[in-house]
């Protein structure tokens, strides 16, 4: 079977985005070019690689096998290019990071200083819910992964780099504001929680179960911003990462309640599959993240 790197890149774009249009946009080529290259690749394989159902394309078994092989080949080639650049004393290459949505509140700030130090490195961020990041981690689609609750069933390298305190919030005018509370004092309150499977929800469920507390759940939402708006509107209490709040929560019409057991102590981790050979760029970024994250956190805490 003969296939070019260009065809493999276009096929991976199709596999990841589910349409010829999206693959063409991602690779900055025309749709006819994508269609022609994929047709030639399918003919070379001798089996259908994808099928169309409605407006979306789905990989066949042969397509799934090719996608895994193509991804491994292109990753190896990218690593080779970055190794050559490192030998030449150049800092060029691409860094791919997948992170859970709550990490968007601080990772871009840490990336800013990294980009200043390494201006020739191209960075791609995928911001998803926890299940989406875990799915990409299983397929080894990125260089590094950032989340607060690493999946226990995967063999991973784990680097803790930043505290992730989870706080209980209410609307700024809530009658419980300013009181010292026990978890039992919240039995009559309604809660707005993150969706099941998220890192915050996993930590909440573990704490509530250990305390023998069953929250009255009014809403489950998949967005920190939506949760904050709902809490500010008086719909209930919520548990969120302190990183998701401004230095002064009152600026968002919120308050942090003083409840025994809170904040829940968690940490942010950088992850990658055990045995994975990090590219030179990924190794440099990992070192930068561990070096600068704690400094950033301490500056933020002093401003609170």
Automatic annotation (TrEMBL):
Gene3D superfamilies hit by this protein: 3.40.190.290, Winged helix-like DNA-binding domain superfamily/Winged helix DNA-binding domain
Domain HTH lysR-type stretches: 1-60
InterPro entries documented for this protein: LysR_HTH_N (IPR000847), LysR_subst-bd (IPR005119), WH-like_DNA-bd_sf (IPR036388), WH_DNA-bd_sf (IPR036390)
Keyword Zinc: no
Keyword terms, alphabetized: DNA-binding, Transcription, Transcription regulation
Similarity remark: Belongs to the LysR transcriptional regulatory family.
Protein name as catalogued: Transcriptional regulator
Native species: Chitiniphilus shinanonensis
């Amino acid at each position: 079977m003969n296939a070019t790197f260009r065809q493999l890149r276009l096929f991976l774009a199709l596999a990841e985005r589910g349409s010829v249009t999206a693959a063409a946009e991602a690779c900055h080529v025309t749709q006819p070019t994508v269609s022609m290259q994929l047709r030639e690749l399918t003919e070379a394989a001798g089996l259908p690689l994808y099928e169309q159902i409605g407006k979306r394309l789905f990989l066949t078994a042969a397509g799934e096998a090719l996608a895994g092989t193509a991804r491994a080949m292109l990753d190896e080639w990218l690593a080779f290019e970055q190794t050559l650049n490192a030998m030449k004393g150049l800092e060029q290459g691409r860094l791919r990071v997948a992170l859970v949505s709550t990490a968007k509140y601080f990772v871009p700030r840490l990336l800013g200083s990294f980009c200043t130090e390494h201006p020739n490195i191209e960075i791609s961020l995928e911001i998803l819910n926890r299940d989406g990041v875990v799915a990409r981690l299983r397929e080894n689609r990125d260089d590094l992964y950032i989340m607060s609750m690493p999946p226990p069933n995967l063999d991973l390298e784990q680097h803790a780099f930043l505290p992730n305190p989870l706080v209980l919030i209410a609307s700024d005018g809530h009658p419980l504001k300013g009181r010292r509370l026990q978890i039992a004092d919240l039995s009559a309150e309604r809660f707005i929680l993150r969706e099941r499977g998220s890192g915050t929800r996993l930590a909440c469920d573990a704490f509530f179960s250990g305390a023998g507390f069953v929250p009255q759940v009014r809403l489950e939402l998949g967005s920190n911003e939506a949760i904050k708006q709902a809490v500010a509107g008086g719909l209930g209490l919520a548990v969120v990462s302190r990183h998701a709040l401004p230095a002064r929560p009152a600026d968002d019409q919120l308050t942090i309640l003083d409840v025994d057991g809170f904040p829940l102590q968690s940490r942010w981790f950088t992850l990658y599959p055990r045995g994975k050979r990090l590219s030179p760029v990924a190794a440099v970024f990992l070192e930068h993240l561990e070096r600068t994250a704690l400094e950033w956190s301490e500056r933020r805490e002093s401003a609170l």
